């Protein structure tokens, strides 16, 4: 289920209706995608790990429920309901779900340096 939005379109959904946890591991659902951003719902079962990696795009995480630990450029960040994290492009990061964990991941285009 991916909704592709073109210019001047609207999209409304209740995120909690899309949350579902697998028996183990991760379920990811692209909810919305346009030319600049992609909005993906991630649902991780407790004790699931995502190993360290990077992304060529800026990323924002908005935690919806559960608890986990994000390691972002060597800094440990507790993920819990209400936390918002911005990760610049190419920042190394890894994730450990301590409980079932659901979050919205927004990938956006990397902006050009203005220096």
Q: What's the gist of this structure?
A:
The protein is mainly β and 115 residues long. It is built from no helices and 10 strands.
Topology, element by element:
Layout lengths: L2 E2 L21 E8 L3 E8 L4 E5 L4 E8 L1 E6 L2 E6 L3 E4 L5 E5 L3 E8 L7
Parallel strand pairs: 1-2
Antiparallel strand pairs: 2-3, 3-10, 4-9, 5-8, 5-10, 6-7, 6-9
Pfam families: Cupin_2 (PF07883)
Organism: Mojavia pulchra JT2-VF2
Protein name: Cupin domain-containing protein
Structure keywords:
115 residues, Jelly Rolls, six-stranded mixed β-sheet, four-stranded antiparallel β-sheet, RmlC-like_jellyroll, Cupin domain-containing protein, RmlC_Cupin_sf, Cupin_2
Can you put this structure into words, describing what you see?
- This protein is mainly beta and 115 residues long.
- The protein has one domain: Jelly Rolls, CATH 2.60.120.
- It has no helices and ten strands.
- Strands 1-2-3-10-5-8 form a six-stranded mixed beta sheet, with no helix packed on it. Strands 4-9-6-7 form a four-stranded antiparallel beta sheet, with no helix packed on it.
- The mean pLDDT is 91.
